[in-house]
Design goal:
Elements: E1 2-8, H1 9-14, E2 21-25, E3 34-38, H2 44-61, E4 68-73, E5 84-87, H3 110-124, H4 130-146, E6 164-166, E7 174-177, H5 184-189, E8 193-195, E9 200-204, E10 219-221, H6 227-243, H7 245-272, H8 281-304, H9 310-316, H10 320-336, E11 352-356, H11 362-383, E12 391-395, H12 409-416, E13 422-428, H13 436-441, E14 444-449, H14 455-462, H15 466-471, E15 477-482, E16 493-496, H16 499-503
Parallel strand pairs: 3-13, 3-14, 4-11, 4-12, 5-11, 12-13
Antiparallel strand pairs: 1-2, 1-16, 6-10, 7-9, 8-9, 14-15, 15-16
Helix pairs in contact: 3-4, 3-11, 4-6, 4-10, 6-7, 6-10, 7-8
Length: 504
C-alpha cells in the first residue's frame, strides 16, 4: 500500500520543474504505523481520509489484500465514502462486550480475558486494591462458569448456534423452571417464587423433585456473559454474604474466639496474682452465650447446604466491605451504558467501519477504544503472521489512550502488531503526549503544524530542529519521516503539499 504525502521541497527549490513525490510504501517501511501531529485546523482529518482512500486504491492496484479500516472518531467528523458508520451512546441498544472470550486455545481463554478486563479497568478508572481485584476475578470466573465456559476445556470457549444452557447453571442456589403464565398459581402453591430480574419462576436448588418437575428446567441460548451479568452475580453474592448463614457462622465463631481469649487473659492474670479460685461470672456468661450462638448458626449453615459450593462462596469473597466496593465499581461500569451484549450493526461487507463515539465522555471513550483495540489485536494474533497489512486502526485524538505503561494495548500494538498484519494510525495535536518507546516504534511520523508552545519539547521528542517546525505551514507544507527496513537513521523530509492536493 502507498500514501503520497506531497512533493520534496528540497528538489523543488533546486529545480522547480523537478517534482519528486514523497511516498510511504508499507512494504518498504519497518511497519505500517503512522503518527500524525498537528494543531486544530492543521488538516489531520483531511490526511486521515486521504490515507484511507489511497491505501485502499493502491492495495487494489497492486493486487494486495484490501485492508479493513477501523476508524475511532471522537468528534464525529471523519466522514468517509462507503463507510459503515455506527453511533455509540448510552441510548443505543448495541454496544461493546468486553467479556467476549477469544475461542483460540493458544491465544484466548477465560484467564486471558479476565486479566485483560481487570487491567483495562485499572488503567482507566481508580485502581482496585488487591482484595477488590481478587474478588472481581472470582466473580468473573463464576459468571463464566454459569455461562458454560470451562478454563480447562477450550471446546467450551466456542458458542455454537444451537447451544443452550440452564438459566441457573453456575450456582446461585436458584433452580429456574419454565412455567406458562396460566399455570403460575399452581407453581406458586408448590413453592415456586418469581424472579423479576430473570423474569422466571424458581425454586431452591436441590428441591426439583416431586410435583414441581411437571415444569421443565428453564433454558436459554448460550451467550457470552455481559457486564450486567457480572453485576447481577456480584449483587447476589453480596446478598448471600449479608444474609447467608455461612458468613453469620464465621462471624459468630470469631465472637466466641474473642470471648474465650478475654476469659483466658483474665484467668492468667489471676493466676499470676496467686488467685487459685478465679471466677468472672460476666465473662463466663458472655463466653457461653457466644459459644451457643456459634453452634446455632453453624447448625443453620449445615442445614442450608444444597449445592456443595456454599463454603467456597463464603471463603473466597473476603468480606462484605470488599465485595460492596466491587459491586460499586461494576455499577459504575454498567451505568456507562456502552457495555451491551448486542453487537453493533456494522455492514460486514464494508471495508471501513467507523465508530462514532462523540457522545461518550472521556472515560467512556478510553474504556471503549482500549477494549476494542485489545480485541482486534488478539484477532490478528490468532490469524497469524502475514506479509501484508489486513487491518488499519485509525485513532483520532490518540493521546486520550496513550500512557507509558508497556502493557497498554496502544504500546503493544506499536511494538508487536506489524508481523500480524496490523497498522495503526494515530492523530494528535502534539507528540509530547506519547511515550518515547511509542514514538520510536512508529515508522512514519508526519508533522502538520504544531502550536509554538510545543516547539521546544516536540523538537527534542521527535529529533527535529525548531527551524523545521517553524517552516511548516498548515495545509501547505509538512515534515515527514519514514523508517525503512535496514536503516537505523532516517532524515526528516520537508514536503510541500500541492494546491490541488490540499483542496481535494
Amino acid at each position: 500500500m502507498k500514501v503520497n504525502w506531497g512533493l520534496d521541497a528540497g528538489a523543488l527549490s533546486r529545480k522547480p520543474s523537478q517534482q519528486v513525490e514523497v511516498t510511504l510504501d508499507t512494504l518498504l517501511a519497518v511497519n505500517g504505523h503512522t503518527l500524525l501531529v498537528g494543531m486544530s485546523g492543521a488538516g489531520k482529518t483531511f490526511q486521515l481520509k486521504k490515507m484511507v482512500r489511497q491505501m485502499s486504491r493502491s492495495a487494489e492496484q497492486a493486487g494486495e489484500p484490501i485492508p479493513k479500516f477501523y476508524v475511532f472518531d471522537v468528534h464525529g467528523d471523519i466522514d468517509i465514502a462507503d463507510a459503515s458508520t455506527v453511533l455509540f451512546s448510552e441510548q443505543t441498544k448495541w454496544g461493546l462486550n468486553p467479556l467476549r472470550v477469544n475461542p483460540d486455545p493458544h491465544f484466548g481463554g477465560i484467564r486471558k480475558r479476565v486479566q485483560g478486563f481487570v487491567s483495562t479497568v485499572n488503567r482507566v478508572m481508580r485502581t482496585l486494591g488487591p482484595k477488590q481485584e481478587a474478588a472481581l476475578r472470582n466473580i468473573l470466573h463464576d459468571v463464566y462458569a454459569k455461562h458454560g465456559f470451562n478454563q480447562d476445556d477450550p471446546t467450551t470457549w466456542t458458542i455454537k448456534d444451537d447451544a443452550k444452557q440452564l438459566v441457573s447453571e453456575g450456582g446461585d442456589n436458584r433452580f429456574y423452571i419454565d412455567v406458562p403464565i396460566d399455570e403460575k398459581d399452581e407453581a406458586k402453591a408448590l413453592g415456586a417464587r418469581w424472579d423479576g430480574t430473570a423474569k422466571s419462576w424458581f425454586i431452591p436448588s436441590g428441591e426439583y423433585t416431586g410435583a414441581i418437575t411437571r415444569w421443565p428446567p428453564k433454558m436459554t441460548d448460550r451467550v457470552h456473559p455481559s457486564i450486567t451479568d457480572v453485576l447481577r452475580m456480584a449483587r447476589n453474592v453480596l446478598q448471600q454474604l449479608f444474609l447467608g448463614t455461612g458468613m453469620k457462622a464465621i462471624t459468630n465463631l470469631e465472637v466466641a474466639n474473642r470471648a474465650a481469649a478475654a476469659y483466658q487473659r483474665k484467668l492468667l492474670e489471676a493466676l499470676r496474682r496467686g488467685e487459685k479460685a478465679f471466677e468472672d461470672e460476666k465473662l463466663k456468661a458472655d463466653l457461653e452465650k457466644a459459644k451457643a450462638k456459634a453452634i446455632e448458626t453453624f447448625s443453620e449453615y449445615a442445614e442450608s447446604i444444597v449445592t456443595g459450593r456454599e463454603l467456597d462462596c463464603v471463603m473466597k469473597y473476603d468480606s462484605t466491605d470488599v465485595l460492596k466496593s466491587v459491586v460499586d465499581r461494576l455499577e459504575n461500569l454498567d451505568s456507562i451504558g456502552i457495555f451491551k451484549a448486542e453487537p453493533p450493526p456494522f455492514d460486514p461487507n464494508a471495508n471501513v467501519w467507523r465508530y462514532n463515539i462523540k457522545p461518550l465522555s472521556m472515560e467512556e471513550r478510553k474504556l471503549f477504544v482500549l477494549f476494542r483495540l485489545e480485541e482486534l489485536f488478539l484477532q490478528a494474533v490468532q490469524r497469524g503472521e502475514t506479509k501484508y497489512i489486513h487491518d488499519v486502526l485509525i485513532i483520532d485524538e490518540a493521546h486520550i489512550y496513550a500512557d507509558d505503561d508497556p502493557d497498554n494495548i496502544i504500546n503493544t500494538i506499536a511494538k508487536e502488531a506489524r508481523k500480524f498484519g496490523v497498522a495503526m494510525v494515530c492523530a494528535s495535536q502534539s507528540p509530547t503526549h506519547f511515550p518515547d518507546d511509542f514514538i520510536a516504534s512508529v515508522a512514519t511520523k508526519v508533522i502538520l503544524g504544531i502550536d509554538e508552545m510545543y516547539w521546544r519539547s516536540s523538537a527534542t521528542k521527535m529529533r527535529v530542529s525548531e527551524d523545521a517546525l517553524k517552516w511548516v505551514r498548515p495545509k501547505r507544507s509538512m515534515l515527514v519521516q519514514m523508517k525503512t527496513s535496514g536503516e537505523t537513521k532516517n532524515d526528516w523530509r520537508w514536503v510541500v503539499i500541492p494546491p490541488e492536493a490540499a483542496a481535494a
